[in-house]
Design brief:
alpha/beta
Length: 341
C-alpha cells in the first residue's frame, strides 16, 4: 500500500508526532489514538519520539476513561509537530479547537473508516472496516508490527463498541478473524464485553427511560424518533457520554428501519444520531444535514430551528426509505436451497 508506506516513512522521519481525534471522542476514537501511539513506540527501533494525543471534550465517561488511564492527553509539548495524524475523524472541522494544530503541521495523515471521510490530509488511509481500531490493526499487521496484548485489548474495545457488540456496521470476515486471533492470544474478551455492555449507571438508565418516553413513529412506523434535552441530562444526573447507545433501542424495534435520537444541546443547537438496518444508508441522510458516518451509523450537528431541522430530516429519511421498500424475509434463511428454487 503506497499510502501506508508513506505513513511509515513519515513516522520514521518525524521526531515529534501529534495524534488527534474528533470532539467528544467515543471508545473507538480513544482506543485507536492510544493503540497507534503504543504501536509507534513499540516499533520505532529504539528511536525516541515525542507523541502527544489531543481531543476536545467536556468530559470522558468512566467507561471510556479506562482506555486513557495513565496516558497524558491534551498536553502540547511542541509548538508545532513534524507529523499530525488524525484517527476516526471524518473531517478537519470535527477536530474542534485542535484543527489549527493539525493544519500547522507540515505533514498530515488521516486514518479512518467513515465512508463520508473528506480526505482532508496529505495522506489519507480510509479503510472499509468496522472501526478505526480495526483499520489500525490491519495496517499494523500488514507490516508485521509487534502488537502487544494491551494493544489487542484496545483494538477489540474499538471494534465491539463501534459495532454495538457486532450487531451493526461493516462487519466482515476479517473482523471475525481478528477477534479470533485475540481469543487465541487469551485477551480477556469476557471482561471487556462486561465493561462496555453490562456496566451502565443508574443515571444512564434514568436517561434511557426519558428517551423511551419520548418515542414517536413516522412513515408507517419505519422511523422511530427519540428526544432528549440538556435539562433531561441534568435531571437524571447524566452526562452527554451517557447518551451513547440509547439510539440503538430504537433500531431494535420490529419494523423500524431508521432510528433517530435528537439531543437539544442548547437553544437552536442539536446533536442527532442515526441508526439503520435493511441496507438503509443513513450516512447519506446525515451528509445532507452537514454530518456523516457509515451506512448504518451516522450523526450530525445542526444549528437552527427545530421544526426546520426535523422537517428536513424526516423528508430525507422518507426519500431513502422509498429506495428500500423490500426487507429480508428471515424465514428464507432457513429454507433448503431446492425449496427456494
Amino acid at each position: 500500500m503506497k499510502s501506508l508506506a508513506k505513513l511509515l516513512q513519515d513516522i520514521q522521519n518525524s521526531s515529534n508526532i501529534a495524534i488527534l481525534t474528533h470532539v467528544n471522542p467515543d471508545a473507538d476514537a480513544l482506543a485507536s489514538a492510544i493503540a497507534l501511539k503504543k504501536l509507534i513506540n513499540n516499533n520505532s527501533q529504539g528511536q525516541r519520539k515525542i507523541i502527544d494525543i489531543f481531543f476536545e471534550a467536556d468530559s470522558i465517561s468512566d467507561t471510556n476513561a479506562v482506555l486513557i488511564k495513565g496516558v497524558p492527553c491534551n498536553y502540547q509539548r511542541c509548538h508545532a509537530y513534524d507529523l499530525a495524524i488524525t484517527v476516526d475523524c471524518a473531517s478537519v472541522e470535527r477536530l474542534g479547537k485542535y484543527a489549527e494544530l493539525f493544519k500547522n503541521s507540515p505533514n498530515t495523515a488521516n486514518i479512518d473508516h467513515h465512508t463520508t471521510n473528506t480526505r482532508f490530509a496529505h495522506n489519507n488511509l480510509v479503510l472499509k472496516t468496522s472501526s478505526t481500531c480495526e483499520a489500525i490493526y490491519i495496517l499494523a499487521a500488514t507490516r508485521n508490527f509487534e502488537i502487544s496484548n494491551d494493544i489487542c485489548s484496545l483494538i477489540y474495545s474499538g471494534i465491539i463498541t463501534d459495532t454495538n457488540n457486532l450487531q451493526q456496521g461493516l462487519i466482515t470476515v476479517w473482523t471475525h478473524k481478528i477477534i479470533t486471533k485475540f481469543m487465541e492470544r487469551k485477551v480477556n474478551i469476557e471482561a471487556l464485553n462486561q465493561h462496555f455492555f453490562k456496566n451502565n449507571t443508574k443515571n444512564k438508565s434514568f436517561l434511557l427511560r426519558e428517551a423511551l418516553n419520548s418515542l414517536h413513529f413516522f412513515h408507517d412506523d419505519r422511523i422511530a424518533i427519540m428526544r432528549l434535552t440538556n435539562q433531561d441530562l441534568d435531571d437524571c444526573g447524566a452526562t452527554f457520554d451517557d447518551t451513547v447507545g440509547i439510539v440503538n433501542h430504537g433500531i431494535e424495534i420490529k419494523g423500524v428501519d431508521i432510528a433517530i435520537l435528537i439531543i437539544k444541546i442548547e437553544e437552536n443547537y442539536f446533536y442527532v444520531s442515526l441508526r439503520s438496518k435493511n441496507n438503509i444508508n443513513v450516512a447519506q441522510i446525515a451528509q445532507q444535514l452537514g454530518g456523516g458516518g457509515n451506512e448504518m451509523v451516522a450523526a450530525f450537528q445542526y444549528r437552527g430551528l427545530f421544526n426546520e431541522m426535523s422537517e428536513a430530516l424526516i423528508k430525507a429519511c422518507g426519500a431513502e426509505l422509498k429506495n428500500h421498500s423490500e426487507t429480508l424475509n428471515v424465514e428464507d434463511l432457513f429454507l433448503e436451497e431446492e425449496k427456494r428454487d
